[in-house]
Specification:
The chain starts with 9 loop residues before the first helix and ends with a helix. Helices cover 47% and strands 12% of the residues. It has 14 helices and ten strands. The longest helix has 24 residues, at 134-157. By secondary structure, the protein is of the alpha/beta class. The chain folds into two domains: 6-132, Orthogonal Bundle (Arc Repressor Mutant, subunit A); 154-279, Trna Endonuclease, Chain: A, domain 1 (3-Layer(aba) Sandwich). The strands form three sheets. It has a five-stranded mixed beta sheet with strand order 4-5-6-8-10, sandwiched between helices. Strands 1-3-2 form a three-stranded antiparallel beta sheet. Strands 7-9 form a two-stranded parallel sheet.
Length: 304
Amino acid sequence: MAVPKYNEMYAPFLKALADGEIHTTKDVRQFVAEQKGLTDADLSEMLPSGKQGLFANRLGWTRQYLKKAGLVTGADRGQLVLTDAGKNAVPDADIIDNQYLQRYPSFCAFINTQSGTDSALHEEAIAEVAEKSPEEILEDAYAELNASLADDLMTEIMKLEPTDFEKLVVRLLLAMGYGSGIDDAGFVTQASNDGGIDGIIKEDQLGFSSIYIQAKQWNPDTSVSKPEIHKFVGALQEQKAQKGLFISTASFSAGAKKSADAAGVVLVDGKQLTKLMIKFNLGVSVEHVYEVKRLDTDFFTDGF
């Protein structure tokens, strides 16, 4: 099953501590996972950033909000126990959600701070925190900004002259580190006599290994078909080339992908192209940098 949202894990989290004893976070995590019937695949699912497990992230916010409501406290590092308020809430565990937690002033104060208001807790603020964890909200916003940026990039890419598009592709490969440390590592071939090869990236000083590039600046709504791949493979064979890269602003048909895979040709479509440009800062600039930090518990336990 899908990993539950953090507010959907309030009940099993409280039940894991229902005996009133001190439990480790590991024990609570295992109990909740079993209660929710999560598989190994579910537990290995990552946030979009790939830097943290989705279940671990959401369960962390389950703990955080229950703590903010005053139902759970940390007995010691890595340990959890119910407060008196938490013990009283256990019978209601199955109906506890963020609306329920509003009855606790400490939770209301926390959410008001998060939503940037000093007035009474707004329904929309509660609805927002009930949907996703703060990290997920940040990552969604990040993805939305990048999607908009990718659209803007593609608009500018399509304005380029064909030769400039080929230069862009070569610059991208160099920005990604191909040909690093080699003089004149990448270049665009002469348009009048390119033999079906638009650019070349040298991978070693003497040119024993090179990447041969085909660059197609086509309408993003169209797709590159199988015959185009065959033409490129033929051009590679004439050059006795071992490595071929086909980059296009369009997508690739299923037949094209199958042919490329059989021939060992790497394909990069329009969506991948803009993602790579964003990742390697080509045609874009950094506007803001936000650092997301977390508590360093070792700092407080190792002594001063």
